[in-house]
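Question: does this match?
>
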Amino acid sequence: MRTLALALAVSMAALFGFASSASADATIDLIWGSTTNTDPAGLAGLGTTAITAAAGDHVGLEIYITAGTEGLSSYGISLAFDDQVQVLHPPTEYGLKATVTCTPFPACFFDSPTMTPFTPGVSSVIPAPPGGTGFVYTFEAGTLGNGLLDTFGPFKIGEVWFQVQSTVATDGQDIASGFFNVGADGAYDNASQPVTMIFGGAAVDAFAPEPGTTALLGLGLLGLTLAGRRNRK
């Protein structure tokens, strides 16, 4: 948790001068979209930034980007995560294809948002060491014409499945988005100006049995203890 906060602070500090002349904001949202966890509390976390899970559960995180008023022609976004989760499968990277057929071509192509990843998939995944921070480098895409507009709304740029570790705890943000891959990450609008990005995070909270379940478990253990004492008499 502490190292994740430090990584986020370093990323923001590196962008201070960069953002001072940047265009209108764009936004990154991290949303839990899938889980193997059948606990009702965990299922309630789907569609939000926080989910409840136990060690061994698998949770799928969706990454969304929303352009600012000046649009978005290219981006490179990475994730940082603490040792309460580890990446389970190779992350999935998405592009955006124009949904309309236009004429005359190719001139009208530049009026339809089309975002294409520069390389297939992310470049690397670095596991989180004990007490440290792991990274997913980098979800990236761009266009030759006009990119995303704010009227398009959220666009899913990727998905990562995590496996919950035995260190899971309810202690705040466990996954952060940011420009962590120095020299590769960043974002530009449709006028080729740097974009100020508002980064979102996500949390995996520890599953805690409901009070009724805890009480029943305690009674069961008490019964086993009394039965053992009778057998020894």
